[in-house]
Design a protein that fits this description.
The protein is an alpha/beta fold. The protein has two domains: about 1-165, Survival protein SurE-like phosphatase/nucleotidase (Stationary-phase Survival Protein Sure Homolog, Chain: A, 3-Layer(aba) Sandwich); about 180-225, no CATH class. About 25% of the residues lie in helices and about 25% in strands. The chain is built from four helices and eleven strands; from the N terminus they run βαβββαβαβαβββββ. The longest helix has 17 residues, at about 140-155.
Length: about 220
């Protein structure tokens, strides 16, 4: 089985390293075509007005100056000798649920695989809260993803279906297993996107950065008892 890996956090991301470990438990024919830099929240965007540059980093390993969708298109049409049997996108740092999937670059990579008629799975590792200082439980995705993927591949998939798998913000074997875990898809009212004023090249103050004014609260998406 030939597997194509991509992501939206970039070629150097810890989640991609985790995904490579997962993929190599399933096959020894693993290709990596991922963005040169982070492309989070780019959705299904493609690059039209700038040249795409492809850097070969090793055998079956490429970095692309574009989006996850660009990566999958280039991989399937130009870089790989044959179409892959499976596309895995991730492992994203942070969950992709509810409204998130509409702009997720991770999900977009899987969607492009689906558009080529390839079975495709997006994988994400939930965080306690989205912050640079928070360490993801990559070991959870690494422990459970191979079995989940294998079971999914045993099933018959309808056309136009993409799988989106999210791993909980827990270690693989928590000391106290939660009695109940509840997923709440009401994150939108608890956060707001706003622009932070910055400085342009001439220091004119017209630059801005769009970001979340408040990160997800841990209890905004999961309550454990």
């Amino acid at each position: 089985m030939r597997i194509l890996l991509t992501n939206d956090d970039g070629i150097e991301a810890e989640g991609l390293e985790c995904l490579e470990k997962i993929a190599r438990t399933l096959s020894d024919d693993v290709w990596v075509v991922a963005p040169q830099t982070e492309q989070s929240a780019k959705g299904r965007g493609i690059t039209l007005t700038e040249p795409l540059r492809v850097n070969k980093l090793g055998d079956k390993r490429f970095a692309v100056t574009g989006t996850p969708t660009d990566c999958v298109i280039l991989a399937v049409n130009d870089l790989m000798p044959e179409k892959p049997d499976l596309v895995l996108s991730g492992v994203n740092r942070g969950h992709n649920v509810g409204e998130d999937v509409s702009y997720s670059g991770t999900v977009a990579g899987a969607l492009q695989g689906m558009a080529f008629g390839i079975r495709s799975i997006a994988l994400s590792q939930s965080l306690e809260r989205f912050h640079d200082d928070v360490v993801a439980h990559w070991e959870t995705a690494e422990a459970f993803a191979p079995g989940i993927i294998a079971k999914l591949l045993e099933q018959k998939w309808e056309d136009g279906v993409v799988m989106n798998v999210n791993f909980p913000n827990l270690p693989p074997d928590p000391p106290h297993r939660p009695a109940r875990s509840r997923l709440l898809l009401d994150g939108l009212p608890r956060r707001a996107a706003g622009a932070r004023r910055g400085h342009g090249p001439e220091g004119d103050g017209r630059g801005s950065h769009l970001g979340h004014a408040a990160a997800y609260r841990p209890d905004a998406y999961a309550q454990r008892q």
